[in-house]
Inverse folding.
């Protein structure tokens, strides 16, 4: 299942070119067995049906470490079973390839040549004749009893479905001709023993450890040509098969090898060190089949490990596209189910709730709409024949996708131009001309045939060379892009373990890659793709391979990638080189030239086929019939040739070289231990269609889903808790808002795949939303029962959410807000809402409590019907309630949200609220609600407006109308009626004229608290509560100084430094992680309060009645003093004439002229905020300190009169000038500065 490099098969028991030779076809002993897995209609003519095939022979019997899997090979060689034909049908041969992976993670490739062979067994012929006669009689009887013309019926009628033939060679034209003839099944497509010859498909297969596509195809084609030729081959076919199995070695890395087929030599080659691994599947063909844009989208889906389903009528197209996709992933490797060809017995794997790359053959007349899959939320469906691709919703663009497509188009146009012209290259043409001249010198008629053969050989060689060059160019384009993106990945790999065993035992709890820091240095346009890619298994496996390389040999692909990165870095440091692109071009040219040299001139030549020790009379040639091979000479290698013995011995004596194309090293066992630990699914089980194996496969799927849930929730908790930690430092960049969205997106995908496993009845693309709709229907869409209304109202009185915990209510809200949203988008919105409300696990538990509905919707093997695993799954989701999420609020920003506002006065003065007509304006990250007037004689108000995001400030005011229009406000509570969030805005001050500072308007700073626990929010909230609005008890006023004692100068200065330091930290965080700036400016412990404490230190108080005096009083008098002195000719101070003095007077006068009645405390807050925004505060402070009024207003030990303290504070404020501060509208409303 785990995709390794193409060369991983070199770890097999031998270094042979081929492992097995296989023949599949009809077994005369068992006769005709219907292929029940094909899903065909019995109304179809027997000659058009498929029957079970068998592995007739395979040689050798077995090899070490690569046992022969007869069932899997038979299914992959003949995926649709046996097909029969008559002489009236097309009998063209077919070629396709396949691949499968043993449980050790290696890769084996199969190459299949399928042809039609005349049936000579009388039992098979008689059986087919009998079936056709029976079908003819049944069809005539059914036709007479029904409508005479079934061709006019709907597409779902039995007549049209009977055209769904399983024979891969049936052309569309054949189907159309058959479908247009009334009663066609009774005549055309039948078999008559006297009139017709019966043909049956037979497959020749060669299994190799490496993807030697061209060489294997040529060998099998020549073998078939020898069978169909009327002239016997020079040697029995056993000689050629024995030669390719036992006497043709793998070419050494960087070398080419020539071996001999039946008619002509065959060439194969392997890339050398530093070159990309062997890949002979034509990338040019894949790009031509799909188009460049579609291919880039498909690769994006592959990198993000979505479920990939390829769809085509041609098996080889499925294999070509699949192999090209995995090839272009270099240096990463596909880690999940990989089955480019899925035969009928394996259709249950389409129910796999894990990422996969599979290929499904299009049956004749089959359309996309007729394919119903349980998982479509994260599915990429690729219709190769129609050049159409369906990608998942919200698929991010590949980094620099537009430039990549342009580059690929240029490469394809340049390298495919000569092939369209059909011209031979210069060197090849010269060689051909010399050979033609030599042939003409011999004279005679057959020379023209020889010329045609030579030209055909050279054309094939030229085509293979052009395809190889195009592959190299296209692969280098993607390799270069990935090298640019991950050129510095090693800097972010974390090494913490002391040895491999300790790392393996603690792998889940260890952090191997600093994803947050890596993403922080990436371009913004790449983040959506990269944030999801770093969460994939292929990237995790790549990073783990880097960690393991400390104790074991590096993975060959990773070693090659690291070597390339090192060369790039050396190129960048070269003073003579402008950039690294020339070096990349050199690598490209070197690889292309090396490949061309290897293909034009063989470095090694294998042993020629030779006569074997066969009995007399065996191996005779029967044209048109593949002979029964002599088992005793093919079962094992025979060193009957001295040269063979010498070559074999010499190759065994060669030391194994560790190259990029070989998995070698003493620590291979440790690497395999790591690989086996990662993989949960076994390929051998996947390819076993027996009921026991299918049950075991789905059992493994259940285990994988549970394990994935455990790991995802653990990761989400670790990352979220890291963000909520109070400690700041190097670890504070561990997560960004984008990363959090990526993790939640992964959770949504997991839930979709879990709910899709074993699903047999679905509405739309979302399996989860389909289940919710069925549940809603089962509940009858009933309202909440009357008896529960009282408890619900009680919950409202306590300040909780009316519909919290009600699954149906949340669904209804999603349905009302989801105009134009797909089913998948609605399901994700519902998950986000449940996650934010901390009710996701509870809702899912309620959903799964309807056992009757579960059994109706799901098959017995479904995950949701496994009670123990289901409970563990819900428990892992319940753990997410320990952290706070605002995922719904931050994503669905344009929806309308109902809010509830409650004004809470001081208990002793609560009666005063009856005389006040207050208004509020709530502000958040996404905007404000506008002024909302409270109803008379009430303290509570409901309103609905566009989502405000996380609430930050609240403006509270009154119109100063009515008798005794003043009240002492304790706090204001705001409730989000959808998400259940409760915000508390502490006040603790008077609102009214003649009391306090005479303010008719307050700007309050809010904090998020747990509903129903406002008074103890800090204890129960997972997040440390944000700084609140300063209450009266916290505010330091002159009149209360004698009661509470004066603040020490050290405490005041420390408070100032802490407030400034918090602002600096705020701006040094990634933008997605920054909190609310207003809290840091105006909240408790913020800059405003700290500076107020500084200015209150040492303030004189000689008033008779100890009336409260505010800092704003001093600032106003200082400005009046400066303005008077400016107009006086007696004063000629440089300070008074400085620009800072002018700006100070201008700002203070503008604040006083504001129409807002915000009081003296509000004016001072506005003064500080405007000064820090416009970078003037650090200039105003020395001006106030040097003002002559300061000496009369402050005591001698006051901080404002100490030069060192003022200088220190000025430097602190000056550091804040480096940042751009944007103030909320609520803070500066009414002031035009």
């Amino acid at each position: 299942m785990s995709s390794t490099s193409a060369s991983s098969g070199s770890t097999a028991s031998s270094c042979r070119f081929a492992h097995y030779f296989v023949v599949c076809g009809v077994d005369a002993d068992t006769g005709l067995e219907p292929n029940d897995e094909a899903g065909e209609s019995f109304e179809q003519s027997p000659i058009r049906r498929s029957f079970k095939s068998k592995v007739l022979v395979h040689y050798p019997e077995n090899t070490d470490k690569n046992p022969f899997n007869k069932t899997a090979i038979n299914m992959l060689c003949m995926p649709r079973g046996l097909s029969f034909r008559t002489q009236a049908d097309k009998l063209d041969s077919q070629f396709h390839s396949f691949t499968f992976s043993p449980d050790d993670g290696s890769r084996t490739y199969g190459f299949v040549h399928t042809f039609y062979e005349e049936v000579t067994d009388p039992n098979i012929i008689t059986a087919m004749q009998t079936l056709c006669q029976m079908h003819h009689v049944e069809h005539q009887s059914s036709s007479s009893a029904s409508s005479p013309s079934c061709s006019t019926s709907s597409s779902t009628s039995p007549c049209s479905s009977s055209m769904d033939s399983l024979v891969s060679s049936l052309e569309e034209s054949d189907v159309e001709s058959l479908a247009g003839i009334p009663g066609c099944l009774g005549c055309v497509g039948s078999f008559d023993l006297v009139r017709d010859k019966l043909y049956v498909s037979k497959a020749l297969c060669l299994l190799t450890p490496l993807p030697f596509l061209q060489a294997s195809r040529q060998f099998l084609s020549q073998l078939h040509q020898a069978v169909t030729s009327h002239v016997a081959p020079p040697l029995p076919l056993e000689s050629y098969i024995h030669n390719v199995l036992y006497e043709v070695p793998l070419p050494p890395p960087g070398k080419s090898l020539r071996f001999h087929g039946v008619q002509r030599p065959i060439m194969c080659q392997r890339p050398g060190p530093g070159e990309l691994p062997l890949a002979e599947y034509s990338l040019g063909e894949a790009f031509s089949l799909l188009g460049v844009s579609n291919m880039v989208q498909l690769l994006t889906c592959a990198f993000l490990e979505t479920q990939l389903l390829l769809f085509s009528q041609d098996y080889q197209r499925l294999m070509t596209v699949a192999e090209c996709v995995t090839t272009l992933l270099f240096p990463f490797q596909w880690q999940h189910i990989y089955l480019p060809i899925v035969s009928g017995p394996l259709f249950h794997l389409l129910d796999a709730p894990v990422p996969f790359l599979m290929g499904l053959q299009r049956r004749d007349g089959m359309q996309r709409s007729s394919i119903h899959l349980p998982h479509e939320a994260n599915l990429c469906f690729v219709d190769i024949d129609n050049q159409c691709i369906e990608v998942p919703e919200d698929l991010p663009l590949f980094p620099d996708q537009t430039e990549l497509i342009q580059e690929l188009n240029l490469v394809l146009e340049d390298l495919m131009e000569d092939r369209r012209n059909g011209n031979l290259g210069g060197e090849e043409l010269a060689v051909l001309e010399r050979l033609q001249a030599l042939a003409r010198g011999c004279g005679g008629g057959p020379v023209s045939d020889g010329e045609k053969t030579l030209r055909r050989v050279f054309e094939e060689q030229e085509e293979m060379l052009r395809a190889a060059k195009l592959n190299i160019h296209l692969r280098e384009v993607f390799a270069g892009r990935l090298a640019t993106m991950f050129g510095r990945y090693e800097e972010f790999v974390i090494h913490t373990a002391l040895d491999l065993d300790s790392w393996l035992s603690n792998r889940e709890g260890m952090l191997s890659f600093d994803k947050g820091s890596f993403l922080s240095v990436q371009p913004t346009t790449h983040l959506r793709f990269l944030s999801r890619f770093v969460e994939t298994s292929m990237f995790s496996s790549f990073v783990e391979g880097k960690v393991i390389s400390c104790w074991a040999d590096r993975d060959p692909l990773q070693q090659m990638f690291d070597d390339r990165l090192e060369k790039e870095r050396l190129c960048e440091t070269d003073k003579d080189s402008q950039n690294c692109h020339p070096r990349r071009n050199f690598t490209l040219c070197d690889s292309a030239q090396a490949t061309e040299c290897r293909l034009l001139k063989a470095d090694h030549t294998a042993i020629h086929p030779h006569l074997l020790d066969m009995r007399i009379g065996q191996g005779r040639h029967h044209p048109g019939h593949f002979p029964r091979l002599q088992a005793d000479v093919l079962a094992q290698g025979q060193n009957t040739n001295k040269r063979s013995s010498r070559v074999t011995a010499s190759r065994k004596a060669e030391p194994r070289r560790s190259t990029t194309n070989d998995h070698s090293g003493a620590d291979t066992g440790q690497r395999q231990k790591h690989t086996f630990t990662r993989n949960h699914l076994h390929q051998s089980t996947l390819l076993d269609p027996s009921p026991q194996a299918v049950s075991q496969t789905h059992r493994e799927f259940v285990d994988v889903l549970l394990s994935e849930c455990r790991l995802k929730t653990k990761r989400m908790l670790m990352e979220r808790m890291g963000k909520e930690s109070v400690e700041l430092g190097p670890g504070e960049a561990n997560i960004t808002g984008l990363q959090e969205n990526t993790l939640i997106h992964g959770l949504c995908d997991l839930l979709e795949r879990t709910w899709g496993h074993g699903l047999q009845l679905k509405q739309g693309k979302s399996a989860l939303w389909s289940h919710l709709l069925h549940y809603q229907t089962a509940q009858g869409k009933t309202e909440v029962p009357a008896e529960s209304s009282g408890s619900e109202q009680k919950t409202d009185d306590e300040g909780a959410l009316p519909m919290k915990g009600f699954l149906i209510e949340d669904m209804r809200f999603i349905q009302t807000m989801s105009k134009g949203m797909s089913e998948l988008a609605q399901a994700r919105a519902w998950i986000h809402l449940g996650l934010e409300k901390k009710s996701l696990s509870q809702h899912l538990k309620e959903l799964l409590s309807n056992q009757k509905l579960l059994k109706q919707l799901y098959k017995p093997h479904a995950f949701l019907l496994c009670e123990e695993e289901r409970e563990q799954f819900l428990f892992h989701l319940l753990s997410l309630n320990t952290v706070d999420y605002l995922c719904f609020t931050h994503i669905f920003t344009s929806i309308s949200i109902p809010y509830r506002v409650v004004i809470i006065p001081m208990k002793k003065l609560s009666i005063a609220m009856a005389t006040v007509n207050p208004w509020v304006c709530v502000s958040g990250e996404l905007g404000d609600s506008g002024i909302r007037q409270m109803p008379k004689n009430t303290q509570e108000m409901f309103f609905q407006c566009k989502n405000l995001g996380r609430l930050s400030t609240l403006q509270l005011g009154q119109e100063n109308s009515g008798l005794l229009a003043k009240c002492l406000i304790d706090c204001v509570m705001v409730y989000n009626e959808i998400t259940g969030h409760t915000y508390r805005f502490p006040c603790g001050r008077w609102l009214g004229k003649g009391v306090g500072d005479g303010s008719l308007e307050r700007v309050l700073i809010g904090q998020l608290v747990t509903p129903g626990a406002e008074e103890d929010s800090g204890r129960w909230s997972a997040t440390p509560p944000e700084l609140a609005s300063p209450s009266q008890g916290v505010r330091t006023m002159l009149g209360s100084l004698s009661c509470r004692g004066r603040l020490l100068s050290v405490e005041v200065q420390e408070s100032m430094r802490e407030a400034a330091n918090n602002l600096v930290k705020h701006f040094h965080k990634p933008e997605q992680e920054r909190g609310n700036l207003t809290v840091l400016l105006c909240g408790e412990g913020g800059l405003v309060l700290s500076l107020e404490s500084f200015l209150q230190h040492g303030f004189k108080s000689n008033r008779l009645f100890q009336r409260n005096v505010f800092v704003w009083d001093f600032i106003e008098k200082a400005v009046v003093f400066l303005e008077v002195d400016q107009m006086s000719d007696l004063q000629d101070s440089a300070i008074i004439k400085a620009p800072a003095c002018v700006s100070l007077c201008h700002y203070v006068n503008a604040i006083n002229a504001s129409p807002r009645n915000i009081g003296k405390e509000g004016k001072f807050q506005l003064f500080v905020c405007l000064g820090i925004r416009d970078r003037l505060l650090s200039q105003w402070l020395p001006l106030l300190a040097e003002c002559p009024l300061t000496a009369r207003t402050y005591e001698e030990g006051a901080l404002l009169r100490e030069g060192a303290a003022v200088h220190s504070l000025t430097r602190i404020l000056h550091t804040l000038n480096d940042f751009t501060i944007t103030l909320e509208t609520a803070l500066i409303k009414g002031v035009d500065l």
Residues 447-485 form the longest helix (39 residues). Residues 20-131+192-261 form one domain.
